[in-house]
Amino acid sequence: MAPSEPSSEPASGDAPNRGTGKQLAVNWLHLAVLWSFAGAQPLFGVLADDPAFFVARGNTRADILILAFGLVLVPPTALIAAEAIVSRLPTARQALHLAFIGLLAAVFALQVIADASPAGSSFVLVPLAIACGAAAAIAYRATRLVPSMLTVLGPAPVVFLALFLLFSDVSKLVLPEQEANVEASVRSDTPVVFVVLDEFSGLHLLDRGGRLNTARYPNLAALARTSDWYPNATTVSDRTDRAVPAILTGTRPSSKKLPILSDYPQNLFTLLGGDYELDVHETASHLCPDRLCQREREPIGTRLSSLGRDLRTVALRRLLPDDLAGGLPAVNRTFGNFQSSAKIYGGVVKGTDQTAPQERGRSFERFTRGIKGGRSLHFLHILLPHIPWLYLPTGQQYAENGPIPGLDEKRDAWETAGGPQSGHVARSGVTGSG
Asked: pTM score, two decimals?
């Protein structure tokens, strides 16, 4: 008797499992497309308009790549994982999938409606968005057109990802570029100490007669008597990411340039780096070559966690109507750690990085203790007295936990320094002004 040939028919349980797996794959694609329009692309758009956000935070190429791919892949994967858990219950799985479709459609609709009616109330915008989401879920279930459209739009997540990483200004931070070697030969052996105080106006140093206030600032007065003093000097931009490169290069900044070495290869650090020992502390720029300046970075897990918290705040501000977003931390006061900055105003001091409000004074003291003579450059850009305002003109803090209760932060500089506020300019975006 001849041996039987292997059957080409699947085992009894294989066909349903294969069908379930294929359906979950299709569901993932549809959720990924909807998420890319509702969540990923709006955030990519905000970040692409202000890539200096990554520079100021000290995020690396790896950080940005993990963020970008995670933003596209993780949310739809998490949703499909929930569907997979109930995959043995087809009715429950389908109901859950329709709920996710409706939710993402509502999120997308809320942004579209809010952009069309920026002054609209959440009592009107949210119900409209929910109605749109419900209608999308019903159409997805009742017709073939909507699922087919989502399938056709399948490449959208990849397109949005490529546009963000390769065709926006973020590409300068992602694509490798060769550093230009432009060090000059410097014969002088004079030590250089260069301090940039962010959001500090020279007008704050003057008295009512327009002269240096020697009673309030006796040490600066003593320095001015043996130095060149330019009371009318001002910066060329109210944005830190443009003002600091202008100071370090002597050239006018451009909105098309980032505060990074590849855009400003000729700067103070590359000028002196061949002959001087460099002690450089950049807060919102990256102009010193890595071969000359060693940067201390937090662990990647800490950086990504902080980045995720800040982007959650940015996303909620992008999504929610104004009357619901009012209680969220501001995203244009500082360069990051928005929650920590907000807690300062709530009476809680938190954080350990050098840009944290309560850490700035200690960072300055550590810098001054490291100053030495000889052929050395000591550069510090520090967020002093950058908001949130914490210090009196004497250098004393208002209180252990933050500003004087009830003091209007917008008038803070005027009240404490006796002059007009010139540093803070509210603007859109995700980084603080300078």
From this structure: 0.77
